[in-house]
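User: structure tokens for Transport permease protein, please.
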Amino acid sequence: MTEPAEQQGSTGSTVVRRSTPEELEALPLVAPSSAGLREVVRRRYLLRMLVRNTIQSRYQGTVLGWVWSYIQPAIRFCLFYFLFQVMIGRGGDEMENFAVHLFSGMVIVHFFTETFNGGTQSLIQNRSLITKLPVPREMFPVSRMLVAAWHTVPMLLILVFVCVLLGWRPDLVGLAAAILGVLLTALLGLSLGLVFSVANVFMRDFGKVAQTLTQFVTFSVPMMYPFTMVQDRFGEPIASYYLFNPMAEAVLLIQRGFWTGTTTDPSATEAVHLPDHLFTRGLIMTGIAMVCVVLAQRLFARLESRVPERL
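Assistant: Done. Predicted tokens:
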């Protein structure tokens, strides 16, 4: 489409003509908005619109719509319950309610992988908006984190429902641990999403790298196996290094909030199956994750001016 341009006629009247394609190509791209995450918060109405459109596009053409967000995780929980507790026999006296142990970890892992992978692809998938609108480009990875959170809420509600059926006894420390685990996951996923989103514009291999890394996350956290197995198989020194993984810490935090409260003796379960200083270590890692978000945003701001031309 050509833009109209004004030109002064010989009689003093204004003549409107159409710009040529060559003139349009010579125009500069939209100037980037580099105000960072604060500008994203200031333009939250645009953020809400972007999140809503992303969610609607995922369920476009379906009859049940957002109900699938509840059906799929519910079926997944039933499958894992049948496989691990009925078929394999996990969840006895030594590992009570193992299906809850597994599913609570799955909630956090799903939130992280959706945030990380979605954030990595966010700039490329919104190239038409980036090259035309002067919006803060950090908005796209942030919107993917919020979309991931929206899809994680049904899994969390199903987890709470199952825990209540099993006699869940929540406590303030456990709820604070679960909230801390979710916050740690959000900050970590957002920082990686910011870095990988802009890196993926310059080299598309980073999208494949992100997918590969998220595959390792599933097996590098105490979800399908208890943390005590790491201690028993590899000893205390290796187990201490294992806890440097922030996603393992996030999974243990949410298990402290939900799984331990469904067991017969929550205090004994925590003492046996969870490491010491869990909450303190979670606070430290959350602080580090906040610093990572700041550093990731600065790197993003340095490179974003070259994003439109690479897209």
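User: Anything notable?

Assistant: Residues 1-7, 23-34 have pLDDT under 50 and may be disordered.
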